[in-house]
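Notes from the pairing session

We agreed to fold both candidates in a single pass and log them together. This is the raw record for the first candidate, unedited. Please don't reformat it; downstream parsing expects exactly this layout.

Candidate A
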Amino acid sequence: MTNPTFRAAVVRTPDGPDSIEIIDVPVALPGPGQVRVQITAVTINPVDLAIANGIFHSMGAIHQPEHTGLGWDFAGTVIDTGEGTDLAAGTRVAGMVGGIDRDFGTYAEQLVVPATDLAVVPHELELAAASTVPLNGQTANQIVDLLGDAPEAANRLLVTGAAGAIGAYVAALARDRGWQVTGLARAEDEEFVSSLGAGFTTHAELGWDAVADTATLGEQAISLVRDSGTYVGVQPNARPASERGIRTEAVMAHPDGTRLAELLARTVSGELPARVHTLMPLDQVADAHKAVAKGGVRGRYLLTP
């Protein structure tokens, strides 16, 4: 009798989009506290391109002996549950998996994950749209946590890449903590950034109380922070050194089902954006990566396993 399998996209020897392979993986049953999810949609993120291009392998951050999984966030339907979970089969969920050094990912037909990492998708939200929220929304949430509550007399926050996937969430969420937000983006993105309730600029002056550097400008971004201000980036391995008394932080997103549920609810209400550009089948993952690498599109490329 043949053991059941499902398809997943991985890289064995990373060398760009064409090095991505579709392999058959044995079906795993969920253990205690876990659920098995049939994946409907997966968002392609820049970190996936970096893994397929071998950037993290060359840095010594990935040590998988056979292959490395791709994909961080997803949305789908629960098809099987382990003991001690409250999610029933048929429940629509979204979530993410964390870390870089792993042999599995969300570029797959199904996935076994801890139930606590998931959030139920509101019925008003399509699964494709929901799949765009977990990684970038939770990264933004955790950036705002690192920023903390804005000091009353020093609340000017600049968000670099404010029209991007993470930056747009930061621009919207930071206002909850008292920050007066200005988004740095291209001129053609002014209407979108302004719709988030943020100010807008294409050229930032010096002297910001804090900078959330979602565009990974690094040293250029920290130079915009006033003395004793705050810098928060999204690349822990490339966080600029502290200077002039500036507090420097960097986020590494981790799953949080409770916070994700809040983000999905705010997406339904229209407070947070969910931008889908197009959906492509898993078999076209290489073409999808090439399209994302070209840039110039604000909506997200999704894979449908």
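Candidate B (folded immediately after A)
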Amino acid sequence: MEQEHNEYYIEKVLIHGYIHYKEGGPVQGAIVILEKIPSEYNEELQEEQKQVIYLANTVTSSNGEFCFFVTDRTSYYKIKVFDNNN
């Protein structure tokens, strides 16, 4: 099945954010991990299972900024942050 592309179709979605300390300063060089949490229904257990899948990682910029592109708009995503400076 061929997918029709038009001006309203979005192929990728940007996940973008900033990491800051409680005091307000940016966290430079923090490790940011993106995980996908697809929802799958388990008929045997009659419940939804959440299986986390590692997708990518990046390091924050000097102003604490990070971003990821994702193509699956039907899944949930989890972002983990580790301060690499302490």
